[in-house]
Amino acid sequence: MKKIDQGLIANENSKLEEALDYDYAALGEKLARDNIDIEKLTAAAQAFDVAIPSWGTGTGGTRFARFPNEGEPRNIFEKLADCSVINELSGCTSSVSPHFPWDIVDDFSELKEQADAYGLTWVAVNSNTFQDQPNQEVSYKYGSLSHTQKPNREAAIAHNLDCIEYGKQLGAKSLTVWIGDGSNHPGQQHFQRSFERYLDSMSMIYRELPDDWEMHIEHKMFEPAFYSTVIQDWGSNILAAMHLGPKCKSLVDLGHHAPNTNIEMIVSRLIQFKKLGGFHFNDSKYGDDDLDSGSIHPYQQFLIFNELVDAEHRQQDEFHPAYMLDQSHNVTDPIESLIISGIEVQRSYIKALMVNRDNLYGYQDSNDAIMASQELKKAFNMDISPILAMARARKGAAVDPINLYRKSGYRQDVAKVRFRDPSASGSGIV
Ligand SMILES: [Mn+2]
């Protein structure tokens, strides 16, 4: 089942076919001079996938205001339909990551059937103990899994166990845990005791993980707590993941570090110790801006993928990181932002595949800083758009996705039936 008319895609793609074939052939010749097989890169682009967060399909907001778009999804079924549109046009986003309790439904089998019909799969389920739900008996105002009071911790543990049950019904294979726990004032919280309480709570969740599941811990240095957070950085993260066990790994959200942090080096460290669980891709200028992937620091994103491809190249053990977008779209149509972002993440991956590892290792061993740097820059500076467009064409996705999306009139169509619900969730800020 498709949301976008297949005839429209075929027709629009055919208009661009001749130019694409020409550009693709020219790029193929250029790459062949460096002994790079363009067909291998195109096959890799076709196989690449990054998950869409269900909440990313709604309009985001800041703590000041939210400006909803016409026709934004009001429930998980409508979010799923938007995710299908994104995948049909981008050809690289065939999985969805749900968020609970925002996406709880009465009948998960119906939701799974709907996703199956679209050709979408469910990946990591995300728990939410950073806000109180209506009629909740205890509050998370002063923390959840690390709360000083046992009933509050127990509520947070129970919610995470519920998330595992929901995820099992959807066929998901991992639980991502991010907590807003922390403090706003020096002295407010005992650092060690709060971390101990967190580890105790997490060990209870870990015990209930199905054998073929992983648990991913997401660190974040600030917000909503502004003085300290319990899982502040990758150091606290990897310590917790090592303490909890082999099924627990660290998740890197690009926006959750101090400005100018060398994230690619963190990625390397996590890979080395088999603790890289996955990513939340986004971009930022100042903090956790949740801007579109590759829109501010495309070179950083490329350097992160350089580490990931290096691990693939070395056939690193237990290396199967989960890729997901986690963004907040405040002024754009989220479908357009997510299509472009998925493709930009895919672009970084394919460019990283073009780095000649033997050359790079040689320059590193001989301490040739200039040539090592140039080896990376050479791949980064190459315009590989024809490879990505050809990958989409071969998968029946759109050669020019944004143009096609606008021509489809999808947003206008759903706006006629999705009447705005001002209480709809979708701040998308984690
Ligand atoms: Mn995140």
What keywords describe this structure?
430 residues; alpha/beta; single chain; globular; 48% helix; binds manganese (II) ion; 3-stranded parallel β-sheet
Instruction: Provide the list of bound ligands, each named once.
Output: manganese (II) ion
Tally of helical segments: 15
Q: Give the amount of beta strand, in percent.
A: 5-15%
Shape: globular
- What order do the SSEs take from the amino end to the carboxyl end, as H and E? HHEHEHEEHEEHEEHEHEHEHHHHHH
The rounded Rg comes to 22 Å
- Helicity level: 40-55%
Poorly predicted runs are 426-430
> What's the average pLDDT?
96
Structural class: alpha/beta
> What distance separates the N and C termini?
31 Å
Draw up the topology in text:
Layout: H1 6-32, H2 38-47, E1 52-53, H3 76-90, E2 95-97, H4 108-118, E3 121-122, E4 125-126, H5 150-170, E5 174-177, E6 182-183, H6 191-207, E7 214-218, E8 228-229, H7 234-244, E9 248-253, H8 263-272, E10 276-281, H9 298-313, E11 322-325, H10 334-353, H11 357-365, H12 369-381, H13 385-394, H14 401-408, H15 410-417
Parallel strand pairs: 1-2, 2-3, 4-5, 5-7, 7-9, 9-10, 10-11
Antiparallel strand pairs: 6-8
Word description of this protein:
The chain is an alpha/beta fold. Helix content is 48%, strand content 9%. It contains 15 helices and eleven strands. The chain has helices spanning 6-32, 38-47, 76-90, 108-118, 150-170, 191-207, 234-244, 263-272, 298-313, 334-353, 357-365, 369-381, 385-394, 401-408, 410-417, and strands spanning 52-53, 95-97, 121-122, 125-126, 174-177, 182-183, 214-218, 228-229, 248-253, 276-281, 322-325. It has a six-stranded parallel beta sheet with strand order 4-5-7-9-10-11. It is globular, with a radius of gyration of 22 Å. Mean pLDDT is 96; it is low at 426-430. Bound molecules: manganese (II) ion. The site of manganese (II) ion has 5 residues, from loops.
